[in-house]
Amino acid sequence: MKNFWAWTSNSVGFTNLENVQDTLSRGFQASFVPFIGTNRKISGSVVNNFSLNILGGFSGGTNKAEIGGLFNINRRNVQYFQAAGLFNQVGGSVKGFQVAGLTNINLEAVTGFQAAGIGNFSSGPVSGVQAAGVLNIVTSDLKGVQLAGVTNYTHHDVEGGQISTVLNIAKNVQGFQLGLFNYSDSTSGTPIGLISFVRKGYHKVEIGVDEMLPLNISLRTAPEGLQYDFCWDET
């Protein structure tokens, strides 16, 4: 993805942007691949209401809907609907519904619903739902729900919930985490899983023996005010 974005940045399309200072608007565009379509070499300066990309397309943004057979690349904002067979890449914000067969990559805020076969990535805050077959990554805050087949990662705060089959990671959680392993810096909600570790929570290790168990090791870890026990013994 990075290499492809570097290619577009150095392509003839970006070179032509220097000669077009204003953003153009058009009702509809169609392309076969980037720069081979109705907007031709000024594709990166045009914001389209509706966009149809047979294999893939590159545009300044989308106001209503965009569909790509393989991929969609937008320099600025996208709203309402975007779908691609492989990936969507947006340099601005996303508002509405975004779906891709593999990945959605967004560099600013996302408001709405994201769905991807492999993963969703956003470097801006997310308000809504992220659903992925493998991985969701938000490097800012999340207000809503992350659903992943394997892992959810939010670099800052979560107000809502994280649900995965294996691992959930967040900084401050106001809501819940549901997964095999859960990690947070602090939480005001409830993590549910085999092992849930809250860095600023309750931690205690106990070792004991009795007439039934020759050796018993217990790890107690939970948010403030809650307590879970994970025990091991030689039997």
Describe the structure.
The structure is a single chain. With 235 residues, this protein is mainly beta. The protein is built from two helices and 24 strands. It has helices at residues 2-9, 12-17; strands at 24-33, 36-37, 46-53, 56-59, 61-68, 71-74, 78-84, 87-90, 94-100, 103-106, 110-116, 119-122, 126-132, 135-138, 142-148, 151-154, 158-164, 167-178, 181-187, 190-192, 195-198, 202-208, 216-222, 228-233. The strands form two sheets. It has a 21-stranded mixed beta sheet that branches. The protein has a three-stranded antiparallel beta sheet with strand order 22-23-24, with no helix packed on it. The longest helix is centred in the N-terminal third of the chain and has 8 residues, at 2-9. It is elongated, with a radius of gyration of 23 Å. 36% of the residues are buried.
Form type: elongated
Helix content: under 10%
Helix/strand-derived category reads mainly beta
| Low-confidence runs | 225-235
The secondary-structure element order is: HHEEEEEEEEEEEEEEEEEEEEEEEE
Beta-strand residue percentage:
over 45%
Radius of gyration: 23 Å
The total beta strand count reads: 24
Name the features:
mainly beta, 21-stranded mixed beta sheet, 235 residues
